[in-house]
Amino acid sequence: MIYTGKNFVKQVKPIPQNLELAPTLARRVFQLRELRNMTVKDLAKSCRMPIGRIEDIEYGLETWLSTTDRQVLAKALVVEPVLLQEVETRPQLLNESLEREIKLREITEIILQGRTDLECLDCGHTLKCSIQHGYDIEGRPIQFAKAFCLKCPFILR
Fold first, then answer.
1. How would CATH label the architecture of 2-85?
2. CA-to-CA distance for 146 and 154, rounded, in angstroms?
3. pTM, to two decimals
């Protein structure tokens, strides 16, 4: 801290040039927060955002920020907004979501046929696949395809 005559000003060190920045928004916000020696509560207070919102960003539930949120978060982390923007992923467009839905249906059918050597749509890692057996409301047996990725948050429901 530096005393300026009337009050103390927190001095922030620049980001080391040899530091490899994280490749996702969630990891990068976490990395920068840790680098600035802040808790989630500290960052939320600096940004005037709910703690849950910061947690959602760091857990990867939010992958894209509005311009205002990006600027506020960058200011609290003492970085340029472009450092956050470069790792953001925008929400899928309608055509992309339709293509994804078709791929999810294909995966479901393949799992129900007994295959378990499938790759995650998001990261390419091997999926953990299973078939869940149950009964419908009339007591008839039914099957559900289940799959999740051990590396990323992908879940087939």
1. Orthogonal Bundle (1.10)
2. 11
3. 0.55
